[in-house]
Amino acid sequence: MTLDRAVLAFAGCVVLASVGLSLLFSPWWLALTAFAGFNLIQSAFTGFCPAAIVFRKLGLAPGVAFK
């Protein structure tokens, strides 16, 4: 798995977990979905993604987007 795919998979898991938590507990969990979306948009323009830094330190091979 490359770094790019790991970041996308992690973002998808965060969104799904957030939706599930909002259905079970509180609609305020949707703020986590908004944060994930904002982070994806800003990383598309800046190339900076905190999750990519963590996955890189875990030893994942870089992909095309996060080098």
Description of the structure:
The protein is an all-alpha fold. It has one domain (3-57). Helix content is 70%, strand content 0%. It is built from 3 helices and no strands. It has helices spanning 3-24, 30-46, 50-57.
Core attributes:
67 residues, 3 helices, mainly alpha, single chain
Summed up:
By secondary structure, this protein is mainly alpha-helical.
Helix content: over 70%
Distance between the termini: 14 Å
> Poorly predicted ranges (pLDDT <50, ≥5 residues)?
none
Give the tally of structural domains: 1
Q: What average pLDDT do the residues reach?
A: 93
Number of E-state strands: 0
Largest sheet: none
What overall geometry do the principal axes of the alpha carbons give? elongated
Rg over alpha carbons: 13 Å
The helix-strand sequence is HHH
- Tally of helical runs: 3
> Structural class, please?
mainly alpha
Beta-strand residue percentage: under 5%
SSE topology sketch:
Elements: H1 3-24, H2 30-46, H3 50-57
Helix pairs in contact: 1-2, 1-3
